């Protein structure tokens, strides 16, 4: 995006398109990644109402924070499971394989 005299222009340098003042100012990559164009959704959200709902920076930030929180929650669950497995293995080591098999057999007989 280029801004000339306060007006935004989108697209490749040799084919710049002036901003549509009804639409979101966010830039979207063209399929294939050759250039960018203006988002075609209606503006009305975010700072000065310049963004569409999807590209509202505040909404993106809130969404990102929620995703980060969920990622951290999942990471903690995995970490706890690993810690549990390590502790269980440590506590089981004093038993021999035969003792463990015997233990399982006894339990089956109950
Ligand atoms: Zn948008």
Segments where pLDDT lies below 50 for 5+ residues?
none
Helix content: 40-55%
- Radius of gyration, in Å, reads 29 Å
Structural class: alpha+beta
Tally of helical runs: 2
Order of helices and strands: EEEEEHH
Sum up the overall morphology in one term: rod-shaped
Side-by-side strand order of the widest sheet: 1-2-3
Gap between N and C termini: 75 Å
* Heterogens: zinc ion
Q: Sheet with the most strands? A: 3 strands, antiparallel
Strand content: 5-15%
Give your account of this protein's structure.
The chain has helices at about 55-90, 95-110; strands at about 1-5, 5-10, 15-20, 25-30, 35-40. The chain is an alpha+beta fold. The strands form two sheets. Strands 1-2-3 form a three-stranded antiparallel beta sheet, with no helix packed on it. Strands 4-5 form a two-stranded antiparallel ribbon. About 45% of the residues lie in helices and about 15% in strands. It has two domains: about 1-55, no CATH class; about 55-110. The model has no long low-confidence stretch (mean pLDDT about 90). It is rod-shaped, with a radius of gyration of 29 Å. Strand 4 (about 25-30) and strand 5 form a beta hairpin. The chain has two helices and five strands; from the N terminus they run E-E-E-E-E-H-H. The longest helix is centred in the C-terminal third of the chain and has 36 residues, at about 55-90.
Quick description:
With 110 residues, the chain is an alpha+beta fold.
């Amino acid at each position: 995006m280029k801004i000339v005299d306060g007006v935004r222009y989108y697209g490749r340098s040799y084919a710049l398109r002036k901003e549509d003042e009804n639409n979101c100012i966010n830039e979207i990559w063209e399929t294939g990644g050759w250039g960018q164009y203006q988002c075609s959704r209606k503006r009305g959200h975010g700072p000065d109402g310049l963004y569409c709902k999807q590209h509202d920076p505040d909404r993106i930030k809130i969404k990102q924070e929620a995703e980060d929180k969920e990622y951290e929650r999942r990471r903690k669950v995995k970490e706890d499971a690993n810690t549990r497995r390590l502790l269980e293995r440590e506590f089981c080591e004093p038993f021999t394989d035969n003792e463990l098999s015997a233990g399982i057999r006894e339990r089956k007989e109950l």
